[in-house]
Amino acid sequence: MKACFLFGKKIEKIDKLILFMKTNQQKKTAFNTIIKTAAVFTALIMSVESLCAVGFRLPNQDPEAIARGDAFTATADDPSAIYYNPAGITQLPGLQASDGLYVISADTTFSSPAGNAKTDTTPQLVPQLYATYALTNLPLSFGLGVYAPYGLSLNYGNNTPFNTVAEKGSLLYATINPVVAWKITPKLSVAIGPDISLSQLQLQQAIPFDPATRFNYSGEGWDAGYNAGILWQPDPKWAFGVNYRSNTKITYRGKSGQNFGAPFPASTASSVSVPFPEYITGGISFRPTPKWNFEFDLDYTKWSEVKSATISSTPFGAPATLTLDFKNSFIYEFGVTRQLWDGYFASVGYEYSENSSPSANYTPIIPDGNLNLGGMGFGHRGQRWDWMAAFQFAYGTRTVSGDNNAAADGNYRTFNKALNLSATYKF
After folding, report:
1. Where are the beta strands (DSSP E) in 308-407?
2. Are 83 and 149 in contact (CB under 8 A)?
3. Pick from 250, 159, 264, 258: which is nearest to 204 by CA?
4. Cα–Cα nearest to 70, from 398, 416, 377
5. Spacing of C-alpha 243 from chain mean position
6. How many H helices and E strands in the chain?
7. What domains lie within the chain, and their CATH numbers?
8. What 8-state DSSP symbol labels residue 289?
9. In terms of Cα–Cα distance, which of 102, 107, 69 is closest to 374?
10. How high is the mean pLDDT of the chain?
11. Which stretch of 157-161, 203-207, 223-227 has the lowest confidence by average pLDDT?
């Protein structure tokens, strides 16, 4: 990655000097390599801790978009379009592959008359992989993405005022998403593709009648859905995009356990089904000159599909239900990109994310609230190499009162910091 930052321009010049060219057969070999790499990336995502996000959704999937406040649906002009709007991959010639790394410090603090708590702020990592290929004799493009559209990993430790509600939680969620896009006319493209998601869930809390005892659940599951997109560019100055992702429901099969001892067993086979909501994003891009790109996106998530999650059996015999009753919410996204010189560009953006979790069923392991998110980034597009770096912060406060679990009542403050890096190679 440092080579991309320090020598990206030199690599471009070297490419011109040596007249590096790929044959069709080489491109096929490269694409096969990308497919194999995708399998490795899936395993890598599943082996690292996932991220604290809006609800438990993670809409931050590429630095070019993050720097613009994730307002990218109507622009979608790099391989991460597979996530933001797959119809956008028709804008990308030849074979391209992009690797990215998202690094976040999840920082939530809690205060109440009963005491204080704070999450572990150790940086967490999640990789991203995208590849696209455009046919030369047909108006079709193909893409493959591996990324984490959902995720949450928080650790408050064992000595919190609400330890009988939540202590630790981790949701790992990796999606493999092939897509096909059709450029119907020079101004209109559509795309669709299935997504297969693999997930792991872990939860821990203290037992109310014995706070020194811990109840744990861990399980794994998968499900399939799809995403689709439309990109319409009626004029060089205007572009409109829509992206839709279907809902899924993953049944985690694993075990619940505790360290209470006799007469209860240490663990028992158990399952829990968790719904993941559908969402749709619409965007408008305005480019008054070739050097400026302004975009506004409106993102709607149908969180009302997330009602509750019931662990089918526990060491105590009875099922355990986590009631959530989320409500639908919007994310308002705005971003600006300015082209600079010799392929360099800079972006800034802002987004406002509405709260989706009602106070009555608030759980500290999903510290949801109204969030203000800001982003900025700097990058370069060359003949063979593109690179981008973006910084993002998320800030929000919330006072919870009247929770069904009174121990969770109090003041919450979130101040997350994140860095996203990516490099794209054009074969």
Report:
1. 308-311, 320-323, 329-339, 344-353, 371-381, 385-400
2. yes
3. 258
4. 377
5. 15
6. 4, 21
7. 2-426 (2.40.160.60)
8. S
9. 69
10. 85
11. 203-207
Q: Residue 58 — φ and ψ, nearest 5°?
A: -120, 90
Q: What digits encode the pLDDT tens for the residues 336-385?
A: 999 999 999 999 999 999 999 998 988 888 888 899 999 999 999 999 99
pLDDT at site 53? 47
Three-class DSSP category at 305: helix
Identify whether the C-beta of residue 280 lies closer than 8 Å to the C-beta of residue 243: yes
Residue 247 and residue 305 in contact, taking contact as beta carbons nearer than 8 Å: yes
Place of tokens 């096909």: 180
Q: How far apart are CA 381 and CA 205, in angstroms?
A: 48
- 244-268 residue pLDDT tens: 999 999 999 988 877 655 455 567 8
Torsion 15-21-27-33 (CA) sign: negative
C-alpha span between 237 and 241 (Å, rounded): 14
Closest-CA residue to 419 (of 121, 63, 6, 64): 63
- Rounded to whole angstroms, how far apart are CA atoms 416 and 52? 8
Residue 6 has pLDDT above 50, yes or no: no
pLDDT at 326: 92
Q: How far apart are CA 161 and CA 420, in angstroms?
A: 34
Tracing tokens 């205060």 back to the chain, one arrives at: 111
CA 162 to chain centre: 28
Strand partners, 311: 320
pTM of the model: 0.85
Could you give the CA distance from residue 27 to residue 16 in angstroms, rounded to a whole number? 19
Q: At residue 89, what is the residue type?
A: I
Joined tokens for residue 265? 């067993």
